[in-house]
Amino acid sequence: MTQLALDRDELQQQLAAIIGPQNVSRRQADLVAYSHDLWPLALIWKRQGKVPYPPDFVVWPETVEEVSAMLRLANARRVPVVPYGAGSGVCGGTLPLHGGIVVDLKKMHRILAVNQTGLTVTAQAGIIGEDLERALNQRGYTLGHFPSSMYCSSLGGWLAARAAGQLSSRYGNIEDLTLGLQVVLPSGQVIRTKDTPRSAAGPDLKQLFIGSEGTLGIITQATLRMVPYPESRRLRGVLFQDVHSGLEAIRLVMRRGLRPAAARLYDENDTNIALGSLGYGVTGCLLVLGFEGDTQLTELEERLGLEICLREGGQDLGTGPGEHWWAHRYDISYKQADILSNENAISETVEVATTWDKLEPLYLAVKASLEESCFTMAHFSHAYPEGCSIYFTVVAESPTERECEGLYRRIWQGAMEACLKVGGTITHHHGVGLLKAPWLPQEYGGGYPVLQELKKALDPNDIMNPGKLGLERG
Amino acid sequence: MTQLALDRDELQQQLAAIIGPQNVSRRQADLVAYSHDLWPLALIWKRQGKVPYPPDFVVWPETVEEVSAMLRLANARRVPVVPYGAGSGVCGGTLPLHGGIVVDLKKMHRILAVNQTGLTVTAQAGIIGEDLERALNQRGYTLGHFPSSMYCSSLGGWLAARAAGQLSSRYGNIEDLTLGLQVVLPSGQVIRTKDTPRSAAGPDLKQLFIGSEGTLGIITQATLRMVPYPESRRLRGVLFQDVHSGLEAIRLVMRRGLRPAAARLYDENDTNIALGSLGYGVTGCLLVLGFEGDTQLTELEERLGLEICLREGGQDLGTGPGEHWWAHRYDISYKQADILSNENAISETVEVATTWDKLEPLYLAVKASLEESCFTMAHFSHAYPEGCSIYFTVVAESPTERECEGLYRRIWQGAMEACLKVGGTITHHHGVGLLKAPWLPQEYGGGYPVLQELKKALDPNDIMNPGKLGLERG
Questions:
Q1: pLDDT tens-digit series, residues B262-302
Q2: Closest CB from A119, A301, A353 relative to B199
């Protein structure tokens, strides 16, 4: 907001008048804390003592009316507004590129309704995933949505960044789980789409805001599906000779119409780390295959799934590896910060997806690119009947601190170009943010101008998270 | 287009230059034939000799380049363009309200790719549903998408009107089946979204065009999921004492995590007709419950499903009623025209949906409204874990021919108001068109201005199917 000739004291008073002085901060510690998310490059900057994009204000609204009034104010004053959930995004989506107001929704964390007949839960967008899940567990239900950031991500963040949970093969992704949304537009207007399992009443406006990463409005509330907590859960490790045979097994499991909760295949490097820590002295590729739900169906699905795996040359490792994964399934979101504390280190995750016919070419192309400068391991997860995502984890070391950012950007340039060349999507579930914006026009296949037009139509003053998704503040 | 000062001869020459003179018609027979779809009110007008909305031209493009060039021309000349599939819409969505050019896509009917590994099929939008399905069947696959209009609806029509198939509980609705779209914008620009099982790269543009009913562009091609043709199919009739116990059975089947292909419950009147024709001398409510897929899973799901039904008081009628339904499942789309040939008769279908907790109130409210003037029967279908749709079929008779339209409009006014009052969605899968546009703003819960803004942004000259979805030509 430095380029805006705004009186910060005056704006602070106006914000305080709307949400109370205790909910508006210009304290340096807050501005620094909200200047980044978990984007590795932002953490590298932090390590180097740089804070390139501090906001001017951090605010904590408590009601949708407050959000609406603040947006009206910001819109009238042309002040940038950046919605903020739990800050666990890994693409720089919440960086206040042009300063302005970071709107932290964490005080809007109430569960508003649990509909046990209609199997839906309505909650405010600021609720943390694990809090929502536990509240449902206590009533005998589950969301079935388990991003690895479960403890440090919010409902609103899931929606804004199009999250996927680790059991999405069975339960669907966030867009499948969402029956209705409440959204505040930049004008302050509040939209509440109808909570319905389905409708044919025109285009589905929900899907416009899901994945919009705060560029079109603020999601303040959502109604999601929930399901009865599964009666049974069975997880199993199966060892394959190579990536190819493991992928064939997953593809055939999905093709058969089975609905695994988990189907995660680790490549050789990733298997080495995963199984090595368990004391297995083996080489190959580990598949964690899990089924859950009704006990009889789960048993039958597991039997049919295992049959396919053995036919494809898999070796049954029993329940150990699967249960180990389950116990540690949220660890990854905390690990990166540790690695990054080492001087000159780069740690990153790259997740892409495509249809089965192009999956191995995509894996090989992106891997080859990453291996030019990184130690690279990968797993395949979020299987669909039509395809699968690939999740690369890479570690690299820059010769000097100064060269870190350049190396980081070269790694991404190579990976994204390799992905697009094969026809994969540049992100399966981490989103775009600042990081992947340069490749979004190519991703969109001629549709990018449509996104630009939508942005202009819904946010004519460009106050909503300006500069994200490549939508540059004009 | 009568209000436009356009030289029709000149426009005809320009169109012919793009798509060839044989693909442009101003013949009176064509203009009358394309002046209506299967909207019952349009059929009533036809019975009365009225042709209120004839187009000025009917054209049959054969390539996306031709569609693009025509849209550029129409956009420059501000000539309305109405995309047309197979004309089986029942809401007046294709009526050329302001004249102009009806673009019949039926010559764009090629299957472009069958990806047997990635389980997708890419086809042009003008292909008829049954042709696409049979081509896949020959290769051992199925779409799993069976609208009752299967023989008289097109891929593009399914997408434009957000279709649902009769087995959607298992296979999903058209928006779930669509991996990628090709769309031509009013500017002539061609968009091709990426064929991917999923992406987190910003908002999902596909979902903007699905359900847009031709108001934002012309869908020219799509990539859909397909699945291996099911190994087994089992259909069963179960008789319940009343609607309530039958609905409870469906709700519990879905809650258990079973995936019936069909779960159709007929209310007393509908059962009377359905079972009466089979010679059953019973009263109550018939449920057709079907499972399909892998043989072992199908058997287990059917056993678990039947257990639930019997526990809820259902009486197993064996396979007869289910198989009868399967054999006649497409008949309904042909029946209406017969009834409407009777003088002063009105025949209509009203399909709404909501979550389970509001489903019986919705049924009772809409039924009460319809019964004020109609013989009314209903079935419940398209079950979800969260809710279900209700499909009313009504027949009424107007005292005179002149009063037919007024009675028709009163029937709808009452039904839609009753639906909205309970919180149901005004359409589960028939779409909006002209018929339901008056209630769309209320349906959208404050979001209707967003739709208006989108329309202005993407179609600034308002050439795309003007006047539909309530988007009035300014």
A1: 999 999 999 988 777 777 777 899 999 999 999 999 999 99
A2: A353
Give B469's contacts in chain A (Cβ within 8 Å). Answer: 202
CA angle (B25, B31, B34) in 5-degree steps: 110
Q: What pLDDT score was predicted for residue B1?
A: 45
Q: Which residue reads 């019975």 in tokens?
A: B47
DSSP H or E stretch at residue B423: none
B252 token code pair? 């519990």
Q: Which residues on adjacent β-strands are paired with residue B227?
A: B142
Give the residue with greater pLDDT, A253 vs A473: A253
Which helix (H) or strand (E) segment is A375 a member of? strand A375-381
Element of type H or E holding A45: helix A40-47
CA B248 – CA A460 distance, rounded (Å):
49
Judge: B119–A205 Cβ closer than 8 Å, yes or no.
no
Find the residue in B nearest to A115 (Cα): B357
Closest to A83 measured CA to CA, from A13, A12, A154: A154
What is the rounded CA–CA span in Å between residue A423 and residue B115? 15
CA torsion sign for B6, B9, B12, B18 is negative
Cα–Cα distance measured from residue B58 to residue B80, given in angstroms and rounded to the nearest whole number: 12
Q: d(Cα A86, Cα A160) in Å, to the nearest integer? A: 12
**Phi (first) and psi of residue B191, to 5 degrees:** -105, 140
| Closest Cα in chain A, distance from residue B118 (Å) | 5
The two structure tokens encoding residue A164? 């996927």
Residue B223, strand partner residues: B122, B180
Q: Is B368 at the interface with chain A, CB within 8 A?
A: no
CB–CB contact A213 B202 (8 Å): yes
Chain B residues in contact with A308 (beta carbon < 8 A): none
Q: What are phi and psi of A103, to 5 degrees?
A: -100, 100
Phi, psi at B207, each rounded to 5° = -70, -10
Residue A451: in which H helix or E strand, if any?
Answer: helix A448-458
Of B280, B276, B287, nearest to B242 (Cα)? B287
Q: What letter would DSSP give residue B349?
A: E
Residue recorded with tokens 């209406």 = B336
Is the pLDDT at A334 greater than 60? The verdict is: no
Residue linked to tokens 């799901």? B301
B225 has pLDDT over 90: yes
Q: What angle do CA B233, B235, B238 make, to 5 degrees?
A: 160
Span A40-63, mean pLDDT? Answer: 95
Probe site for chain A from B194, B296, B471 (most A CB atoms < 10 A): B194
* CB proximity A29 to B under 8 Å: no
Which residues contact residue A277 at a Cβ distance below 8 angstroms, ignoring those fewer than 6 apart?
A: none
Measured in angstroms, the CA of B103 and the nearest CA of chain A are apart by 20
Quick one: average pLDDT of B50-70? Answer: 97
pLDDT tier at A2, thresholds 50, 70, 90: very low
In tens, the pLDDT along B160-174 reads 999 999 999 999 999
Tell me whether residues A355 and B115 touch, CB distance under 8 A: yes
B406, burial (CB in 10 Å: exposed 0-12, middle 13-18, buried 19+): exposed
Please count the other Cβ atoms lying within 10 Å of the Cβ belonging to residue B287. 31
Partner-chain contact B425 A194, CB within 8 Å = yes
- Is A233 in the B-facing interface, judged by CB distances under 8 Å? no
Judge contact between B379 and B266, C-beta under 8 A: yes
Burial per residue of A141-169, b for 16 or more beta-carbon CB atoms within 10 angstroms, e otherwise: bbbbbbbbbbbbbbbbbbbbbbbbbbbbb
Put simply, whether A119 touches B (Cβ < 8 Å) is: yes
Identify residue A409 by its one-letter amino acid code.
R
Instruction: Give residues 147 to 176 of A whose Cβ lies within 8 Å of B.
Output: 161-164, 173, 175-176
Answer whether 0.95 is exceeded by the pTM: yes
